[in-house]
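By way of example, we now present a protein record of this kind:
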Amino acid sequence: MTSLVTDVLLANTDLLEKEDLGTRIGKLSTHIDEIKGEIYHAVHKKYANYRPTRDSTQELHNKVQTLSTEMQTLSNKIKVKQHGDSTVEPAV
């Protein structure tokens, strides 16, 4: 048989351990929420910087594609002109 003092001390120890665990869980939850906020802000900042760069790059890509098409069209016209001129035989 255990004494009344031992029983009370053991009961209080369990209670203290439960309170300590509750406190630690609360602190960890708070810390997790802080880290979530930091991650959110870091990702948001990166995206805010990325999006204008992406849009600018897309615009430049479209300009290059347009220029490339114009160059190809001009090249084809030059080839047709050269081919047309070479089929005409010089007069003797």
Notes: The mean pLDDT is 83. Residues 4-87 form the longest helix (84 residues). The CA atoms of residues 63 and 90 lie 43 Å apart.
